[in-house]
Specification:
single chain; alpha+beta; 5 helices; 4 strands; about 35% helix; about 20% strand
């Protein structure tokens, strides 16, 4: 499960909804009845709140996979400097199917894009596609050698 973040605040999210999110972050398959028991709501009320959180893009409920187990042997973070409007460049980069994470940053680079590829040849193809995108001035590629931690349980703090 991931929580979408577009630079906004958690306005309109009450404590009960935050508790529901935390319950789902612990176990995305937890039943609405079990969540209701934990947060003091009926199963129907939890279902309704979860649907609203999904509909307004506050959260997604997804299966998180291990790319290596699925045959994707190469992951990388591509650092991009744009020579045009950063939002437009980032939109074009984010549209690539291999990009699973794309953010606009402050600092010496403008955009970070994480890619998941089948192998080195596939990564080379994707990097070449990114470099050909209008607005991309330069890229630096950081290939992942070993994943030490990846969690999605930061809660709603």
């Amino acid at each position: 499960m991931t929580i979408a973040h577009n630079g906004g605040s958690a306005q309109g999210i009450d404590e009960i909804s935050k508790q529901i999110i935390e319950q789902l972050q612990e176990d995305g398959r937890r039943s609405y009845a079990a969540i209701g028991k934990a947060v003091g709501l009926s199963e129907a009320a939890v279902r309704q709140r979860v649907q609203k959180l999904v509909d307004n893009r506050t959260m997604q409920i997804v299966a998180v996979t291990d790319p290596l187990q699925l045959g994707f042997t190469r992951q990388a973070m591509i650092v991009i400097v744009s020579n045009e409007h950063i939002n437009d460049t980032a939109e074009r980069v984010a549209a690539l199917p291999e990009v699973d994470y794309c953010v606009i940053t402050a600092g010496p680079s403008d955009i970070l894009a994480e890619v998941v590829c089948a192998n080195d040849a596939d990564l080379l193809r994707v990097v070449s596609e990114i470099r050909a995108i209008e607005g991309v001035q330069s890229t630096t590629t950081y290939m992942y050698l070993s994943l030490k931690k990846q969690e999605y349980n930061w809660g709603t703090r």
